[in-house]
Amino acid sequence: MRGGRRVSCRLPEGGRRIDRSRRLDFTFDGRALKGFEGDTLASALIGSGMAAIGRSSRDGAARGVLGTGRGEAEIGLSVAGADGLALPGASLAMPLQQGMGVTGPDAGRPDLVRALSFLFGSSSAGGRRDDGTVPVRPKSSLADGVPSEILHYFADILVVGGGIAGLQAAVAAGAAGAKVLLLERAPRFGGRAPADGVRLDGVPAGDWIATACAQLERMANVRLRPGCEAVRIGAQGLVFAQETAAGDGGDCRRLWKIGARQVILATGGTELPLCFPGNGVPGVMLASAVRDLLFNHAVTPGRRVAVSLCNDGGYRTALALHRAGVAVACIADLRGEAQGPLAAEAAAAGLRVAPGMAITGIRGRRRVKAARIGAADGDGKDGSWIACDAVAVSGGWAPEAELLLQAGGTLWWDESRAMFRPDPEALPAAADGTVWLRPAGQAAGHAGSAEVLRDAALAAAGAVAALGLVLPDRIALPAAPEEEEGPAEGRWLLPSGASPALLRSAIFDFGRDLSVADLPTLGRGPCRASGIGGAELDAEALARGVPLIRSRTGLADWAEALLPDDALPARPVLRTPLHGWHAAHGAAWEEAGPWLRPESFPRGADSGRAALLREAGAARQGAALADVSPVGKLLVAGPDAGRFLDMAYAGSLGTLPPGFCRYALACGENGAVLSGGMVARIDEQTWLCHASPATSARFEAHLRRLLEQRWPGWQVFAADIVGQFAQIALAGPGSRAVLAELAGEIELSDAALPVMHWRDRQLCGIPVRLFRYALAGGLGYEIAVAPSRAPELWHMLAAAGAVPCGTAALRALRIGRGFAGIGRAAALGAAPQDLGLGRAVSPRKADYIGKAAHGLPAMADPSRPQLAGLLTPDGAVLPEGSVAAADGARVMASCWSPVRGRGIALGLVPGGARRSGELLDFDAPDGRVLQARITGPVFHAAEEARADG
């Protein structure tokens, strides 16, 4: 889509966020354009002279940039990187990249179709349904597929929003000793204060912000997270956030699940557009966006700009344009009298101010050519036209209250400020009445830096007091000027006396591309007004009645799909962070619950057996490297976590010291195994429980049921964090030597890292959590690492001599040592004693889930099905799932053994190994009948020492 004659420009000086020495080339519909390092896509397009850059999804009309924040119109752009691949999270606010290609909705369409679209306003995206409702273009998701990482985080106080209010609240809460997490969706902290020319403690706001960030960085109990947006909040402070960050092999998509005891919403506010005929024409922009572009990127949307406002905020933009040398055609202040210091400053600067007037119409289709200035309460036909090539509008401000509404808060209409504000008497509270969510600053409806900072301090004091902490006396508010502003007037539909026919084209909800003509349809079908802007105009249209306010979730499609944890997909859909490496090296795949993971790595004409021999040989004689990321990881934390785990597991875990690991089994009420794996104690209140991929989801649901139904008063939080770490197994007698090459001077001796212990370490600068235990017996480690660093670590381990190994080799070694899969045992209802794992059951514990069943006489019956080995006379592999019709013996695990050179199997056999030497006939799943002889369950343990080889 062509942008028409270029009227926008880059100013020769200024732009605090751009580096003019670093030019970036990009294209728009094939046209070569340029920007600078630090530009956003919006600032680069406007700076390159582009006005019309997209089309309305409703009627095909040309659209341009409206603002620099949320609520931007859906205009049908697609964005690709220099490699031609679509970029995740494409939006006008995304950073400009070298070689970026932007494609408008008309790219590739025949010239005749484009001409007809231009003449008649038609579009393939537009049209009204037969029932009269408007179809809504689906929002683009953050990225295709699923996130690379799912992170869990726990905080005493979560501060959402990194403007001056959020920074002040975080400084106060951090100084009180609370564990604080500060999220800011923009890549930088500070919000709009620098662009508004605010001075704090006598210095520019940017200097104060830098000092505050440095102070927070020095606090060990505070974590700053720029570029991370909180998008959903649930009961009792469970917050979902999403971010995209650069990582190895491309962008790393993260979904955060944050548990917070107190939440402070310092999310700021959103400037509202004014609703008048032609307000969707390219060149009509929010006044705050014009000011942001001018200050941050030295970009102006036009050489001659008209301003229309209903509050003092628009004067700031007019004055900023005037000081930058941009002509201000007129300031239309729809209030009957222009008052306040900003209006007086504009008049003193010689700017034309028209009280009681408003912009009531626009000339131009693909860009602004002129604006009609008429009476705000007129019929839209009076007034005069003035020449201009851009229009800045300010309809006042509304707090960003989506998260508040999601958490159960409510809004009330403040007539004096002409806005909806959070109701301080109806904030989200716990069952005991303790408020756990507090809006602060502009998010609470306050204005002016001094007022905003005072409110942020009060919100922090309330959150800190709710935690039983005390604010230190040394926390002082920065000195800020008391800004006086004239009262706002709540009128957005202009002119107020215009006929419905004249107002039909006026856009009131840019996020959903809804016009005034759509107001009668908002209560029908799937299309409803989104955001506070639509709600306020709805109130205006309904004679200032109380509107239905509806919050947006804002959650990306992949995150939405991951929220339910109740069921696993029918087919594997999840890939480990190392999937790309495995695929590039010819991995043969296997399914593990919802995961795909490598079974082996055949080379050339290798058979699966040759790969098995090679990989198992490395695990027994050298060092084998395996991707075990799908192993379940359940974090259990809280003051009552220890006694809860002592009840959930058959072994003792509450007394396990931090830094130790223990193999543990969890059972059901009937005594049968539910899950098993290593449990590591992280700190005084936190344990990390590993589980097989097949049982992890079921076990997590079991723990949640116990907490909800049996011990609802216990302070315990359980979460599946399988996506938070990639996990790499390093097994074999040479594994310590491989680690030593990466560890440098870090000590790896038995004294520094004993068996069944873990330590946080760094390998070549990569932070890892190092566990000392092995999947297949002998010397071994498991290494937990951030998913984005896993490929780098894998490469280094392989370069140090470790042989990549699939799960088939490790599984064969485990079967040979008499370990059957817990998932199969759980499916067959086996008790720990049946599996030879009675040592994992503590005889000293007074109680645990399954203890009563373990004490029943039937549990000691020698004829119970118990673990035994099975060998076919000819060495063939006995198929898993085979059943002996004579006594019901079942084959649990079977493989070809690289150690014995024949098929080996483990099964549940009535009487177990006591029946060694007997032959049984097994009915295989494929219809064959095969014989197998009962043996002991251990096939080659004598060749390996128990722990260290």
List keywords for this structure.
949 residues; alpha+beta; seven-stranded mixed β-sheet; six-stranded mixed β-sheet; 21 helices; 21% helix; 28% strand; elongated; disordered C terminus
How would you explain this protein's 3D organization?
By secondary structure, the protein is of the alpha+beta class. Helix content is 21%, strand content 28%. The protein is built from 21 helices and 51 strands. Strands 8, 9, 12, 13, 14, 15 and 29 form a seven-stranded mixed sheet that branches. Strands 42-43-44-41-35-45 form a six-stranded mixed sheet. Helix 5 (287-297) packs parallel to helix 6 (313-323). The chain is elongated. The protein starts with 8 loop residues before the first strand and ends in a 14-residue tail after the last strand. The model is unreliable at 108-145, 522-554, 557-572 and 942-949 (pLDDT under 50).
Question: How many alpha or pi helices?
Answer: 21
- Percent in strands: 25-35%
- Kindly provide the radius of gyration, computed on alpha-carbon positions and rounded to a whole number of angstroms: 33 Å
Number of strands: 51
Q: Using the alpha-carbon principal axes, give the shape.
A: elongated
Share of helix among residues?
10-25%
